[in-house]
Amino acid sequence: MYNKPITQKAKSPLKQVDGPGDIVMKDTEIKEGTPGTQGTPGTSTTTYSYNGERDPGVYDALQKELDSGFAQRKYGFEGTDVKAYEQMKLGKMKSPNVTATTTQTEGTPGTPGTPDTEETTTTPIYTRDETDAIRPYGAYQNRIVERREGGALERKSNRAVKKLAKRYAQDTDDDGKKGFGKIMSNRKQRRDFRRGADGVNYKDEETKNKVQELRNYRDGVSDVQTDMSSSVESLERSRNQRAQGATGDDKVISKPRRANQTDIERSDVIAQMDRTPGDVDFDGFPMRYDQNVGIKKSSPMKKGYFKGK
Q: Which is it for strands 251-253 and 130-132: parallel, antiparallel or unpaired?
């Protein structure tokens, strides 16, 4: 019996999904908020009125109490306002003829302040590449090799598509045709297969994708054949070489570019990071932290997986 432990191959959490990320310095600064303003509280004012008959000359008597100091000694009242002294005395009277009226005044609310905020500043790090000067003859030889290999790729893909089309025609029913009719039927089937026409029945999705990839190589429209980055880089190096007057084995300095993760140990990159405030971060460098790392929850390695199976 084949005795092999049931396991699952864990994906590395550090396996990058896209290309290397650009090196950036991120500095976070705390900016203080503004304090709010305090509101004013509401006020409550109580006034007293006498409903019954009052003796004439009551204000003269109150004025005498103020002038003689009786109001100060008896009630602790300070001031010379007869009306205020009258209100104080009415408030102390326990008489049904005294009515108290309270007036409420609303206060004004305060304004809230703004909280502290974090502001992050991102500063990119740049570097420049050095490369050997390009001799004209060497560049010419490189173009010859590139065209030669490109043509070989197209021819090999064309042969592969033809062979697969022949096999497809052999495996496809000809509706009972024989002789010349069968020859023409197979010819049409091979032609439809090579063109990728509608109605071609592939064995599976993998075969369909494979044939489509071969057609792209045959027609020169695949990603690698339409990628112009190498030609652009070669043209820029040639122009930099001419602008810098580099010849022979001289070094050509490229234009400044944003440094990525692979340039972390370069001296010019380290010098910029030492002089730039903030922490080192990689922009556009997604990790596989949020994907399945290790054993899945429904893995056979979990306890009770085989229960009831």
A: antiparallel
Q: Both 238 and 165 in a single domain?
A: yes
The residue whose two tokens read 């944003």 is: 258
Tokens of 206: 């993998």
Residue 169 lies in a domain: yes
**Whole-number Å distance between alpha carbons of 199 and 23:** 50
Q: Please tell me the distance from the alpha carbon of residue 142 to that of residue 134, in angstroms, as a whole number.
A: 11
Give me the residues paired with residue 101 across strands: 47
Res. 138 pLDDT band, cuts 50 70 90: confident
Same domain? For 296 and 246 the reply is no
What range defines the domain where residue 199 resides? Answer: 151-250
Beta-carbon contacts of 307 under 8 Å, excluding residues fewer than 6 positions away, are none
CB 147 within 8 A of CB 67: no
Closest-CA residue to 232 (of 268, 257, 262, 259): 257
Find out whether 254 and 127 touch, Cβ atoms under 8 Å.
no
In a domain, 31, yes or no: no
Q: Which residue has the tokens 């089309």?
A: 165
pLDDT of residue 16: 47
Amino acid making up residue 309: K
**Residue 273: left (phi > 0), alpha (psi -120 to 50), or beta?**
alpha
Specify the number of domains making up the chain: 3
pLDDT at 3: 55
Q: What share of the chain is helix, strand, coil (3-state, %, to 5)?
A: 40, 15, 40
Is pLDDT above 80 for 144?
yes
Percentage with pLDDT > 70 across the chain: 85
Give the DSSP H/E element, type plus range, for residue 280: strand 279-283
DSSP string, 38-107: PPBPPEEEEEEEE-S---TTHHHHHHHHHHHTHHHHHH---S--HHHHHHHHHHH---TTEEEEEEEE--
In-domain check, residue 38: no
